[in-house]
What does this fold into?
Amino acid sequence: MSSLTVQALTKAFGTTPVLTGVDLHVPEGSLTALLGASGCGKTTLLRLIAGFDDPDAGTVALGDRIVAGEGRAVAARRRGIGFVPQEGGLFPHLTVAGNISFGLPRRQRRDGGRVRDLLELVGLDASLADRSPHQLSGGQQQRVALARALAPAPSLVLLDEPFSSLDAGLREETRQAVSAALVASGATAVLVTHDQAEALSMADQVAVLRSGRLVQLTDPRTLYRSPRDLDVAAFVGEAVVLDADVRGGTAHCALGAVRCDGDVADGPARVLLRPEQLRLAPSGQAGALVARVHGVDFYGHDSRVRLVLSDGATVNARVDGADLPAVGDDVAVTVRGTALAFPVDAAGRSVPLQPSV
Amino acid sequence: MALALAVGVAALALLPLGYIAWYTADLGWEGVRELVLRPRVGELLWNTTRLVLGTVIGCAVLGVGAAWLVERSSVPARRVWHVLLVAPLAVPAFVNSYAWISLLPGLDTYAGALLVVTLSYFPFVYLPVAAAFRGLDPALEETARGLGLSSWAVFRRVQLPQLRVALLGGGLLVALHLLAEFGALQMLRYPTFTTAIYDQYRATFNGPGATMLAGVLVLLCLGLLLAEIRLRGRRGYARTARGAARPVRPVDLRGLTAPALLALATLVGLALVVPLASLGYWMTGGRSAAVDWAALSTTTGTTLALAAAAAAVTTAMALPTGWLAVRARGRISTLLERSTYLGSSVPGIVVALALVTLSIRATPWLYQTVPVLLAAYAILFLPRAVVTVRSAVEQFPPLYDDVAASLGSSAPDRLRRVTVPLLAPGIGAGAALVFLAVVTELTATLLLAPTGTTTLATAFWSASSALDYGSAAPYAVVMVLLSAPATVLLSRDARRGLTP
It folds into this structure.
C-alpha cells in the first residue's frame, strides 16, 4: 500500500479541456471519494491515475514514485494499481476463480486457497469459485471484480462507479461488503461516484470535482457542514438557502435571527441551513416564526415538509416521527444550530468561502 | 497496420467492380452503346425484371402468410413448422431446380422458373418477418384492440407497418440473390443476364459482349444494394424494447385450422418434400448405375479442402476490417467495411469473369489456379465473416484490455489470455458460414477451378447438364447434408441481410 499524490494534472481531448490543474493527495490506507456530476472529468482522472491514458501536464505519484508526468510514463501493467470498472468487467470466458487469479503469478493461479481467501475477504461464499460471471448477481460480480483487483496486492485500488448499476437494496449491501473488504485489506482506494450519500458514508475524504477542477477536498462531515460554495452545498445534500443581512455575527433572514458559523463580515449575505435544522411546532408558540405547510412527502424513516414563509420564500424541513402537520396548517418554525453565511458581492453573487484547495 | 491490411482487403473486394468500370470506360460511349442498346439486352432485362418482380411478390405472400400462421395463430405444432419452413435453405437453388426439371421436363418456362426460385427463396422473407412478428410488442396490439380495431384492422394498421422493414429487407435479399442466380435458371433454360453472360463467355469467348452484360447486371445489383443500405439505416424502427415481452395469445383459427394446416403442408411439400423425394428417386430407383463411391469421396475431399482454405483465408481477411469497424469508428472504417459488402453484391458470374480476364492479362501464371479461386470465394463471402467478426469485437469492449493491463498482464499475454479466447467463437462462426457457402458455390467454381479439379457442385453440374440425373444425385445429397447446419446458423441470424 502507498499514498497517491496528484499534482497539477491537466488533460484535454482535442480542444475540450477535461481536467484543469487537479491536485489531490490520498493518504495511505484511506478511501477517497471523487464526487461530481457526470461529465465533470472524474472518470478521466481515474484513467490517468490507472495509466490507461496519459496526462497533458502534471504528475501522478504512488508514494515517492512518479508514474506519470515529468517525462515518465509507467505502463498501466507496471503500476500495480487495481481497477474495478463500472459493471464489474469480469472476463466472460473465465470462471470466478479464473477471474480472481488472473493477475497472480502463474504458479499461484492454481492455488484454490488463495481464491477462497479473497472470496471470503469480499464476503462471498467459496462455492462460487467455479461459477461463470453471468451466473452471478450484479452485486456478486462487483465483489468478484474487487477480489480480482485486490489479488495481486496493489498499491492502490480504483473503483469507477462500482455501485451505480445495482438496485437500491443490493447497492447498500454491496457497499458495506466493499467497505469492509477495503478496510480489511488495508488498501488505499479511490472511489468515483456521482452519489453524494455514497461518498459521504463510505469515504475518509471527499474530493468534489466540477468542470474538470477540484473544488473542495475534505472529510465528509466538514464537506456537509462547511461546503465551499452554495453549489457544492446543494450537491452534497438538500439545502435551505435564504437571503440575509449579517450584523454582528447574526444573520437576519426570513427565518428570523440565526447565529452564523465563524467570523462573518457585516453586510448582505446568503445563508445555508440544512432541512433537518428546522424544527416545527404547532403555531401560537411565542416568538416563533409562522409558516404555512404547502406539502408533505412521507418517506417512512422521516418526512419532508414543504413550507411557504411569510415573505413567500419556500423552504423544506426534514422532520422525523409520525406526528406530521397537514397541508394548509400553520406551523411555528425554529432553527437549531448555526447557519453558514456566504457574503454577497456587488453583483449579487455569493462569494466562495475559502481559497481553492 | 490493421488499416493497411483492411485497405488491401477492400481493394480486392472492389476488384471486379473496378474491372467492369475500367473496361466500360476503355470501350468508350460508342462501343458501350453498340453492345448494350440492342434487342437481346432488352429481352434479358424484361426476362430478369419479370422474374424478379414475380418472385419477390410470391416470396412476400408466402413468407408473410407462413410467418403469421407460425408466430401469431393457433395452428398446431408451430415449432415444427418453423423448422420445416427454414429447411428449404439447405437445398441449394440449383439442386432444387434439378429436382423439379428432372421430374417435370416441361418446367422450362417463365412459370416454371417462377415456381422453382420462389420455393427456393421464400425463407429469405419468412425468416426476418417471423423474427419481426416475434419482436412486436403485444401491448401495441392490445392497445389497438382496446381502441376498437378488428383483427384484420390490427394486422393492416398496426402489425404490417411494423413489419415493413423486415418485409422489404427480405424482398431485397431475394431480388439480389435472384440477380446473381445462375445454376437454377440455366438448368431451367430460362435466359437471364447471368445465363447469357455464361453462354456468351463459353460459346464465343466474347469479352466485350459478356463484360457489358455484366455491367448492366452490376448496375441493377448496385441499385438494389443502395436501397438495402438505406433501409437498414432505418432498421431501428422495427426493433423492440428490451426486456421480456409477455407471450402473445395466438389468434384462434377455429374452423380455419384445417385449411391453414393444408396450406402449410402444401408449401413444405413443394419446397422440401419434392426436392428430397426427387433426390431419393434418382439415388435409388433412377436409371443410374451404382454410385461411384471413389469419385464421390475424392470430390467431397476436394470440396471440403477448398472450403476450409477459403474459410481460413476469408476470415483472416475479415479480421482487420471487422476490428477497425468497431475500434476505430469513423468514415474510413465504414467505407472499408462497406467496400466488402459492395464487392460481394456483384454476382458470382461477374466476379469469375473479371478474375478470369484479369488473371489472363496481368498474371497468366495465376490463371486457373487455386489462389484465384480462393480470391473469388473471399470476394463473394467476405461479408459473412466481417459481420460475425464485427459482432464478436463489439462484445469485447476495450475495458477488458484495460483491466487485464491493470492486473499486470503484458500485451502478448493479453492477446493470449483475453483477446483470442473472447474472439474465437465469433471468428469460428464466421469461418463456418464461409465454409458452408463455399461447399455449394457453383458459378465462380465452374469458371475458375483449375483444370481437373472438381467440387461437389461442379461434378453435380456436369452430370446433370448431360442429363445424367442419376449420377448427379449423390453429389446433391452430400451438398444438402453439408448445408443442413447452415440453416441452423441462418435461422439464428434471421434479421441480418447483406449489410449488418
About this structure: Residues 38-240+259-284 of chain B form a domain with the MetI-like fold fold (CATH 1.10.3720.10). Chain B touches chain A at residues 397, 399-400, 402-410, 417-418, 421-422 (CB under 8 Å). Confidence is low (pLDDT under 50) at residues 235-245, 493-500 of chain B.
